[in-house]
TrEMBL record:
This is MarR family winged helix-turn-helix transcriptional regulator. Gene3D superfamilies: Winged helix-like DNA-binding domain superfamily/Winged helix DNA-binding domain (1.10.10.10). Residues 9-154 form the HTH marR-type domain. InterPro entries: HTH_MarR-typ (IPR000835), MarR/SlyA-like (IPR039422), WH-like_DNA-bd_sf (IPR036388), WH_DNA-bd_sf (IPR036390).
Length: 159
């Protein structure tokens, strides 16, 4: 066992990042195996627009849980790839509305059967003694109630 694994909860972020990077790396290889030109980092936006059709930039950021600047960066990349279309809201000129472009819609149709396979495999991985998805949900709920920083500051002030 390595030092990071032995450090327990202190290295939680590092271990989650490591797991995430492995899944992203393998995810990219899965899409490549099926002949699909797709970056896993695009998934949250593409999947959200597949289900919600048209959203503002702020709505997408809220849906995927990314910061506004990170969302903008991702949207610019997807627009360059011609996966999404951006247009101004008719009622509010400052607001941009985003929807899937024909190329994005076509991509989703290719990906649907792959998503079924990926879902089965990830369920198998996540469904373990402590059920990973349930644990993630619980951790996210706790952080929503009181952030990591708030908890640290509270403990600091108690000492």
């Amino acid at each position: 066992m390595n030092v990071i694994n032995e450090s327990g909860s202190l290295a939680l972020s590092t271990r989650l990042q490591r797991l995430s990077e492995q899944l992203r790396k393998d995810g990219a290889l899965v899409y490549k195996e099926f002949g699909i030109d797709f970056e896993p980092k695009w998934f949250p936006v593409i999947f959200t627009l597949h289900h919600k059709n048209i959203l503002s930039v702020v709505e997408i950021a809220n849906e995927i849980g990314y910061t506004h600047p990170s969302t903008i960066s991702l949207l610019k990349e997807l627009e360059r790839q011609q996966m999404i279309i951006s247009k101004k809201d008719k009622t509010d000129e400052r607001k941009r509305l985003i929807e899937l472009a024909p190329k994005g819609i076509e991509l989703i149709e290719k990906m649907k059967p792959v998503w079924k396979i990926i879902s089965r495999v990830l369920e198998e991985i996540a469904h373990n003694e402590n059920h990973l998805l349930k644990a993630i949900n619980e951790a996210e709920e706790k952080i929503a109630e009181q952030s990591f920083l708030q908890r640290v500051l509270q403990l600091k002030n108690q000492q």
